Amino acid sequence: MTTATELHTPAPPATAGPGGNGRWWALVVLAMAQLMVVLDATIVNIALPTAQQDLGFSDASRQWVVTGYALAFGSLLLLGGRLSDFFGRKRMFLIGLIGFALASALGGAANGIEMLIVARALQGAFGAALAPAALSLLATTFTDPADRGKAFGIFGAISGAGGAVGLLLGGVLSEYASWRWCLYVNLVIAAVAVAGALVKLADERVTSRNKLDMPGVVTSVGGLVGVVFGLGKVETDGWGAASVLVPLFAGVVLLVAFVVIELRVPHPLLPLRVVLDRNRGGAYASIAISGAGMFGIFLFLTFYMTKYLHFSQIQTGLAFLPMLAAIMTTATTAGSILTPKIGPRPLVPVGALIAAGGMAYMTRLGLDSSYHFGVLPGLIIIGLGLGLVFAPTQNAATSGVEHGDAGVASAMINTMQQIGGSIGTALLSSFAASAGTHYAQTHAPSALLPARAELAGFHTVFWWSCGFFLVAAVVATLLFRTGPLDVDPDAPPAMAH
């Protein structure tokens, strides 16, 4: 098999040397691109009600604005990651950035639901090229353990906080400009990131390419589409519907076929050595389970604040800022100080347990709770925990991987987060509806019964999210190895401590 060093020959880095600030400017560029991809998952949700009113589409069609993005992004990530290994990460990064911006412009100019859905699917496709390229460029740019810890701390903080930024920015733009600016804003971010990438990003030269594993591409894309599509239909159609069960079953079958193919082909799309390493496997599992738990925070807490605290869109976005600050605090301190010294094993379980505690606190919310005493403490606790989860897992997901596999290793962390979020969406929405119905059927009718039934659904979601984080803590404890992460195997000797 072709080795990683045959695939990539290091090019002179675009820095002023190991002590220069060129790499840190590169981090700024990569972080901007990551922020654009992450915030787009929530910013459009805020804009959807006004977009629906403006374009006049149905509730059933509205779901496809979200699902179209998730389907394309989730299913094409592995292919995007491998293409960045084959054709150069900087090249795929630029293609992803420019394509994402153009797709955003198309969506902003949409004159009907069809054009908006196509634009969102294109955003997802170019995001699938952009996200793994950004993370793998980060992994190959920062090979010194101490600098790598700081860089991944910042990058992890942005990944964790991007959803809250999207809620705030979406509220501001929807209220003071137009829902269309929730898409047009990507043109501004992308323009700055493209200019920065051309000046500050360096990549390794690709000297040889293996044949692309087309059976692996077909089965992985088909399998992920089936799983994400099936889970996306649960909320509207229910678990027993053929529209849910058929794509889910087909998706699982195709993913099993994908694993079998990857074991047999000479140059697999996803070499199983990438996944079977304990630290990387622990990172993928932890981020998937935490991703399922995170859904309970953003969606249902947004419902609670707008309906029962009577917050506007902007107030709701601002309400999440303390959580964002908490994520930034622990992600940057844990990433820069602790991860290089002790590794992810103590940090990720502790972070997941703290987040679980925050979700348990949220179950105390009542119809008359206040933001300052009911919501805020829980948000801060959850944020402190998530910062300890995101930075070390993203670092571990790409540590010790050969440079020729960096793109696909980076793609896996995004894929697992996407699948985890899709599972969380399906499960928690279903649990909330069931719990609300059960409460309404088992309590005496009153004027407050509908509100109390809905709140019972929220409490059920918060308890399940708490459970997801507890499972993530156990899985991280069992899978991660003790001690610092492996040094980059392809790093120059001077940079490997």
Give a short summary of the structure.
Helices cover 79% and strands 1% of the residues. The protein is built from 18 helices and two strands.
Topology of this structure?
Elements: H1 4-7, E1 8-9, H2 22-55, H3 59-87, H4 89-108, H5 113-141, H6 145-176, H7 181-200, E2 205-206, H8 214-232, H9 234-237, H10 242-264, H11 272-276, H12 278-307, H13 313-319, H14 321-342, H15 344-362, H16 371-398, H17 406-442, H18 449-479
Antiparallel strand pairs: 1-2
Helix pairs in contact: 2-3, 2-5, 2-6, 2-7, 3-4, 3-5, 3-8, 3-17, 4-5, 4-7, 5-17, 6-13, 6-14, 6-16, 8-10, 8-17, 12-15, 12-16, 12-17, 12-18, 14-15, 14-16, 15-16, 15-18, 16-17, 17-18
Walkthrough of the structure:
The chain folds into two domains: 20-204 and 269-486, Up-down Bundle (Growth Hormone, Chain: A); 214-268. It has helices spanning 4-7, 22-55, 59-87, 89-108, 113-141, 145-176, 181-200, 214-232, 234-237, 242-264, 272-276, 278-307, 313-319, 321-342, 344-362, 371-398, 406-442, 449-479; strands spanning 8-9, 205-206. Helix content is 79%, strand content 1%. The chain is globular and about 70 Å long. A two-stranded antiparallel sheet has the order 1-2. It starts with a helix and ends in an 18-residue tail after the last helix. By secondary structure, the protein is an all-alpha fold. It has 18 helices and two strands.
